[in-house]
Amino acid sequence: MRDRRTAAWVLALALPLLAVGCGDDDGPAPAAPTPTEALWNPCDALDAKGVNREFGTSATEDAGTPTSPSCSFAPNTDGDPVVDANYVLFPEGLDAAWETMGRSETAQVTSPKVRGADDTRLVVDFDARQLYVSGFVQNGDLIQTVDAVDPEPFDRRRVVGAVTWALGELSAHAQESGVS
Predict the structure, then answer these.
(1) What is the domain extent for residue 125?
(2) What is the pLDDT of residue 20?
(3) 44 φ, ψ (degrees, to nearest 5)
(4) I need a surface site. Which of 15, 37, 47, 171 has the fewest CB within 10 A?
(5) Going edge to edge, which strands form the sheet with 68-75?
(6) pLDDT at 166 over 60
(7) The pLDDT value given to residue 173
């Protein structure tokens, strides 16, 4: 059981780590953003009201700061799902990233239709205690992720639907922002 859970989270966490090791050696690395530059934040597309409605929870949003963005929704009630969103700029695309990731033998992987997305993946796995759902949506060079962990008793259909909804919100925001 632990191997299955580990594999699902390795899959969800591998995408940002993958971007760190990518790039060519033909020139210097691009300059790091200055502390005053606005960085992309998935919480620009997601908010607690929508997350609470779709996941059936009461959660508090943490969007980080303009120079250190994050996007997480911590449940206010024990037993409710934890939701996090993140992103990476990866010009090679989701297919290329996907080929380098490890795969769980038990996870179910689908590619839901998300308006405006270049590519998507949805990974669903569970063990006796928790449901794990990770979604990936690509718009141009931007790949955004949504991870949800919901302890027993979980509503698989609702959590899968809510992660798919979040992918749609992230994709729409990327289009509106001119990323795609």
Answers:
(1) 2-20+83-176
(2) 35
(3) -70, -20
(4) 37
(5) 59-65, 68-75, 82-89, 142-151, 130-139, 119-126, 108-110
(6) yes
(7) 96
